[in-house]
Design goal:
The chain is mainly α and 107 residues long. Helix content is 64%, strand content 9%. The longest helix has 25 residues, at 80-104. The protein is globular.
Length: 107
């Protein structure tokens, strides 16, 4: 598999490149939520940033708005497994990444 500028794999990486996109998708895994409930469940996200993330995820076909709630599409649900994989990797290697970042910072 080649990772080129216009490949489908890069498209998938772009979906997780935004800090909030995987978090929003994960927050929707148990079913529809209203904007205010999503914001409360996620924590640390402004209303504006959440709205921007939801709009982008809608345009990517991962989330849809139904009445006053947001829900995962079938495509969005299919993306939960890779997000969970990133989470497992972070649980195992997160401390190593933080240590490397700390070593790279000037004293």
């Amino acid at each position: 598999m080649d990772f080129l500028a216009d490949c489908r794999t890069r498209l998938a990486f772009d979906l997780v490149a935004n800090t909030w996109h995987p978090v929003v998708l994960w927050a929707l895994r148990d079913g529809p939520r209203r904007h205010v409930d999503l914001r409360r469940a996620i924590g640390g996200i402004s209303a504006k940033v959440l709205t921007e993330a939801l709009r982008r995820l809608e345009s990517d076909g991962l989330v849809e708005r139904r009445e006053a709630s947001y829900t995962l599409t079938t495509l969005g649900s299919s993306f939960l497994e890779p997000i969970e994989g990133f989470g497992r990797w972070a649980a195992v290697h997160g401390d190593d990444v933080v240590a490397a970042q700390n070593r790279a910072r000037p004293a």
